């Protein structure tokens, strides 16, 4: 059973959020909150079983959330280790794959994966391929802008030099409005972020996979009780 907030709790949270509610408004919102929580508990009691996709690779550990010491720049969401083949050009070497699709494969739920081939190319084989003649564009406005880090810029440029020495063709390109893009993106980010928050980070209206266990768990996370323990999506039942 989900915890219930009393009128005094609701008054305290309202004050912290800068909301000046009358006693009548407080009673109305408290009643609606209790009604929404009851609806959500009904959903939980249904115990809807969701499909669990099989592992693409079985010789792997379940993964873990890196510690701050291991990931000081907060780059990784989750890390896991997959045993490689016993032979081949990369046998005995350790490489990092950042693209989870390369590890898990296309799941058939993400609409962004519809154009992917049935059989994905192998990243590990691509590492050993010749890149003679491969064309790489370098966005001029992507370096030396206010807020960028010179060390990061130089690291990327060094990597590009290494690729060029291996046979790649580098070409500078310019998009003058590139540094103005955040001005157009911010309203989209704000609106999209609010929508994701209201749907317990699930989104809506897309032909994709909606994990019911995550949707029902998110409102119980830290800080959830400060917003009534339930988002607008949960209130829709």
Q: What kind of sheet is the major sheet? A: 2 strands, parallel
Shape field = extended
Overall pLDDT score = 76
**Low-confidence region ranges:** 225-237
The sequence of SSEs as H and E is HHHHEHEHHH
Distance between the termini: 16 Å
The helicity comes to 25-40%
Write a brief structural summary:
The protein is mainly alpha-helical and 237 residues long. It is built from eight helices and two strands. The protein is 37% helix and 4% strand.
Description:
The protein has 237 residues and is mainly α. It contains 8 helices and 2 strands. Helix 5 links the parallel strand 1 (135-139) and strand 2.
Search tags:
mainly alpha, two-stranded parallel sheet, 8 helices, disordered C terminus
Layout: helices, strands, pairs:
Layout: H1 7-16, H2 23-45, H3 100-104, H4 123-127, E1 135-139, H5 150-165, E2 169-173, H6 181-198, H7 212-217, H8 232-235
């Amino acid at each position: 059973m989900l915890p219930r907030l009393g009128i005094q709790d609701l008054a305290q949270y309202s004050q912290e959020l800068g909301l000046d509610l009358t006693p009548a408004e407080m009673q109305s919102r408290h009643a609606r909150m209790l009604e929404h929580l009851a609806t959500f508990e009904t959903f939980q009691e249904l115990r809807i079983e969701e499909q669990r996709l099989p592992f693409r690779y079985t010789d792997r550990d379940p993964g873990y959330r890196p510690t701050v010491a291991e990931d000081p720049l907060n780059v990784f969401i989750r890390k896991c280790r997959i045993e490689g083949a016993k032979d081949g050009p990369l046998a005995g070497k350790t490489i990092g794959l950042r693209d989870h699709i390369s590890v898990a494969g296309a799941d058939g739920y993400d609409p962004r994966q519809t154009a992917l081939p049935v059989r994905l190319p192998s990243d590990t084989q691509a590492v050993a391929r010749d890149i003679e003649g491969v064309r790489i564009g370098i966005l001029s406005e992507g370096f030396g802008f206010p807020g960028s880090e010179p060390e990061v810029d130089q690291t990327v440029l060094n990597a590009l030099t290494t690729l060029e020495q291996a046979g790649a063709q580098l070409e500078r390109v310019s998009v003058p409005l590139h540094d103005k893009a955040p001005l157009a993106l911010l309203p989209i980010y704000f609106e999209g972020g609010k929508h994701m928050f209201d749907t317990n980070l699930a989104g809506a209206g897309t032909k994709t996979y909606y994990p019911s266990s995550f949707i029902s768990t998110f409102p119980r996370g830290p800080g959830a009780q400060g917003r009534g323990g339930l988002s607008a999506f949960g209130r829709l039942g």
